[in-house]
Design brief:
mainly alpha, about 80% helix
Length: about 110
């Protein structure tokens, strides 16, 4: 169950990372409120997952899920460029996430 919680924490990290763009430097009220709420939920879920998962593994997976998701949404929502180097780099992060999951006892 803690792995599911960890992935959910990563999904909320994506939400606040993308939300930061829409806050326009925390000058827009509702995007700022949503972003701060996503931050709180993300960190709260990460803390719960860390009760039974190793800190290094949990943190690395949380950041990796957030990085991959944020990069994908940056392309989809914000028109950021796609090139072979970016795709390969994201694939390497995904490989690291999978490797950490396989190397960590349940």
């Amino acid at each position: 169950m803690n792995w599911v919680i960890l992935v959910l924490a990563g999904l909320f990290e994506i939400g606040w990372a993308i939300g930061l763009k829409y806050t326009e430097g925390f000058t827009r009220l509702w995007p700022t409120v949503g972003t701060v709420l996503a931050m709180v939920v993300s960190l709260g879920l990460l803390g719960i997952a860390m009760k039974s998962l190793p800190v290094g593994t949990a943190y690395a997976i949380w950041v990796g899920v957030g990085a991959i998701g944020t990069a994908i949404l940056g392309v989809v929502l914000l028109g950021e460029p796609v090139n072979a180097g970016r795709v390969l780099s994201l694939a390497l992060i995904l490989g690291g996430i999978i490797g950490l999951k396989l190397a960590t006892p349940a």
